[in-house]
Amino acid sequence: MRIFKTAVRCCLASAAMAGAAQGQTKVDLRTQGKSIEFAAASTTRPSKTGTAIPGACAIGETFLKTDAPAGKNVYVCTAANVWTVQGIEMPDPTGKASQVLTNDGTSFSWAAFGGDVSGGPGTVMVTGLNGRRLGSLTPLDGQFLRWNTVANQWEPVTLAAALSVFGRSGTVAAQTGDYAFPQISGTVAVAQLPVAGGDVSGTLTSATVVKIQSRPVASTAPTTGQVLAWNGTLWAPASATSAVASIFGRTGAIAAQTGDYTFSQIGGTVATG
After folding, report:
1. Is the pTM of the predicted complex or chain greater than 0.90?
2. 102: containing domain
3. Tell me: the pLDDT tens digits for 152-200?
4. Helix or strand or coil: residue 20?
């Protein structure tokens, strides 16, 4: 009896295992998988695909819209039955060669370089400075940019101005020896002359002699015939009362000359001799 029961049990177990093997054609990876590796799998598509977005979805599902352009074809269900396209929609680059992608804080757009530059990436050319146009003239060695008011632009020119002064550049201050008197032309102004001193006073162009060899001269105005006489203190105009001023119209060392006197001016009698 025991042998029979054991045999029955074995048959029933075998049948159950056979039935389970025939019915278990799919595996639930959430509960039965461990360290799953899909590198050798023939296909690993995780998303639904199609040209029409499903009307219903659960959060986390993905959908690849096969007729949408790349970058705007992947959708994620972000809320129940709500699909949201992933990525940032880029503007069409057709006909926008050498332009750059820019934005206004809301959307993207293509734009060409402008302002003080032109060209495209890799070929940028500066055409202005602070909004002021640069001329297209080819500069020569040693030229500078100078503003042309008439043409309203910067232009290369050769400066006629000195590049250095007395061998110095930058902020040049006057130094002793920059010029010698022979290099200076024109006339010195009165105000540039030193004040007179010694026996004279005033300026050198209108000096007044107030002394003779350090002896003062009186400021008294002389009258006709007066002489300058020393009075023990200063030189002053005085009337000549003793000395002869001149003889026969002559001064200095006077020698006798024919005609000094006539016989009619000689008194007395001629002696025998």
Report:
1. no
2. 98-160
3. 999 999 877 777 788 888 888 888 988 888 888 888 888 888 888 889 9
4. helix
Which residue from 131, 125, 133 is spatially nearest to 154, judged by alpha carbons? 133
Q: At 9, list the tokens.
A: 């049990």
Closest CA to 99 of 87, 89, 88, 108: 108
Residue 35, in any domain of the structure: no
Residue 13 placed within a domain: no
Q: Using one digit for the tens of pLDDT, what is the confidence trace for 58-112?
A: 999 999 999 998 888 999 999 999 999 987 777 888 888 888 989 988 888 999 9
DSSP of 84-119: EE-SPPPPP-TT-TT-EEEE-SS-EEEE---TTEES
On whether the CB atoms of residues 155 and 146 are closer than 8 A, the answer is yes
Same domain for 80 and 116, yes or no, is no
Tracing tokens 């005033």 back to the chain, one arrives at 202
